[in-house]
C-alpha cells in the first residue's frame, strides 16, 4: 500500500491533470452516498466538524475520507482542515493508498473551482481576487491560473499581514504578480474572478460591488449558518453549484436565499454534472455575472485519490 505524504500528494496532483480528472469523473459519475456530517464540541472554541465521505466506481476504485474542520486552529497557526483518505480496490477491498487528506482536499477543492471557471469565467479573465488567507487561498490561485490567463492576483483578509504572506507565496509558487489589499469593495470592482474561501458567518461580497462579466467563486461557508455573499449578489448573478443535493442543504449562500425566497430551486442554472456533460453551456454572454457555489463532494476526493495513486505508482 502506498503512503503519500503532504508533499508527495501535492506532487502527484498537478492542477491541469487534476482539473481534467474531476471533469472526467463528473461526466461519468460514481456511487456517492450522502456524507456524514457531525458537529463536535470543542470547549472554549467554535464547534469543530467531522465529515465522512465515501464514494466508489463499481469494480475499480473505492475510497473514504475522514476530515475534521476546526475553526479554532487558526489561533494555533494550524490548518483549519485535516484529513486522511483511504483508497481501495473496489473489486477486492484491498487497500491501495493512504493519501494525505488535507492536501487532497485543498487541491481538489481548488480544482473544482477552476473546472467551474472553464465554463463560467470569461475566457480573457486576467485579474483574480482571493478573499481569505487560509490553506485554500494559494491553491485557488494556482488552480484558477491553470484554467484562465491570470496575470494579477489580489488577496484580501482580515489580517493584512496574512494577506501579504499569501500574496508572496502565490508569486513564489506560480510566478504571478500578487499583492495584499485592504479595500475589499474596490478589489471586487476590479476583479474578473472573485474566489472566496472563508469561514464567515456574514456576507463579505456585496452584489452592489460586482461589475458586469464578473465570476464569483464561493468555496467557504460550508454550513447553512455561514455566508460569503449577500442576497443582491445572488439576485444579480446566474447561479451554479458543484452538486445540487449538497449546496441546497449545506451551503449558506444557497440555503439561506432558498429559505427566504430570494432564490428558487429552478433558479440554479446547472451543476458540474450538467456543465461537464454539455447539457448547459455555462456563461452565455460577456457581461453576464456568474456565481458558483461549492461545498465539496466525495466524487472529487475519489477522482483526486485515484489520480494521486496512479501518478505515484508510475513514479
From TrEMBL:
<dbReference type="GO" id="GO:0019752">
    <property type="term" value="P:carboxylic acid metabolic process"/>
</dbReference>
<dbReference type="Pfam" id="PF02423">
    <property type="entry name" value="OCD_Mu_crystall"/>
</dbReference>
<protein>
    <submittedName>
        <fullName>Ornithine cyclodeaminase</fullName>
    </submittedName>
</protein>
<dbReference type="InterPro" id="IPR023401">
    <property type="entry name" value="ODC_N"/>
</dbReference>
<dbReference type="InterPro" id="IPR003462">
    <property type="entry name" value="ODC_Mu_crystall"/>
</dbReference>
<comment type="similarity">
    <text>Belongs to the ornithine cyclodeaminase/mu-crystallin family.</text>
</comment>
<dbReference type="GO" id="GO:0016491">
    <property type="term" value="F:oxidoreductase activity"/>
</dbReference>
<dbReference type="GO" id="GO:0005737">
    <property type="term" value="C:cytoplasm"/>
</dbReference>
<dbReference type="InterPro" id="IPR036291">
    <property type="entry name" value="NAD(P)-bd_dom_sf"/>
</dbReference>
Amino acid at each position: 500500500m502506498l503512503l503519500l505524504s503532504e508533499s508527495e500528494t501535492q506532487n502527484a496532483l498537478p492542477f491541469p491533470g487534476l482539473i481534467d480528472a474531476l471533469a472526467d469523473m463528473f461526466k461519468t459519475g460514481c456511487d456517492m452516498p450522502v456524507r456524514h456530517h457531525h458537529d463536535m464540541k470543542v470547549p472554549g472554541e467554535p464547534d469543530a466538524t467531522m465529515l465522512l465521505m465515501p464514494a466508489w466506481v463499481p469494480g475499480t476504485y473505492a475510497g473514504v475520507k475522514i476530515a475534521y474542520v476546526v475553526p479554532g486552529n487558526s489561533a494555533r497557526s494550524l490548518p483549519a482542515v485535516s484529513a486522511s483518505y483511504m483508497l481501495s480496490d473496489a473489486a477486492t477491498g484491498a487497500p491501495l493508498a493512504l493519501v494525505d487528506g488535507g492536501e487532497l482536499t485543498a487541491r481538489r477543492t481548488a480544482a473544482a473551482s477552476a473546472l467551474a471557471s472553464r465554463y463560467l469565467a470569461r475566457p480573457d479573465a486576467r485579474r483574480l481576487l482571493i478573499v481569505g488567507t487560509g490553506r485554500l487561498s494559494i491553491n485557488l490561485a494556482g488552480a484558477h491560473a491553470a484554467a484562465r490567463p491570470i496575470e494579477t492576483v489580489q488577496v484580501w483578509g482580515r489580517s493584512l499581514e496574512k494577506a501579504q504572506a499569501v500574496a508572496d507565496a502565490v508569486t513564489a509558487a506560480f510566478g504571478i504578480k500578487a499583492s495584499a489589499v485592504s479595500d475589499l469593495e474596490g478589489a471586487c470592482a476590479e476583479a474578473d474572478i472573485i474566489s472566496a474561501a472563508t469561514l464567515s458567518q456574514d456576507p463579505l461580497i456585496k452584489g452592489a460591488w460586482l461589475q458586469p462579466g464578473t465570476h464569483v467563486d464561493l468555496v467557504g461557508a460550508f454550513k447553512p449558518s455561514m455566508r460569503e455573499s449577500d442576497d443582491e449578489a445572488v439576485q444579480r448573478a446566474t447561479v451554479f453549484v458543484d452538486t445540487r443535493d449538497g449546496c441546497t442543504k449545506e451551503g449558506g449562500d444557497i440555503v439561506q436565499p432558498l429559505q427566504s425566497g430570494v432564490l428558487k430551486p429552478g433558479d440554479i442554472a446547472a451543476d458540474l454534472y450538467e456543465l461537464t456533460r454539455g447539457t448547459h453551456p455555462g456563461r452565455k454572454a460577456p457581461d453576464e455575472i456568474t456565481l458558483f457555489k461549492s461545498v465539496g463532494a466525495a466524487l472529487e476526493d475519489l477522482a483526486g485519490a485515484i489520480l494521486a495513486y496512479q501518478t505515484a505508482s508510475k513514479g
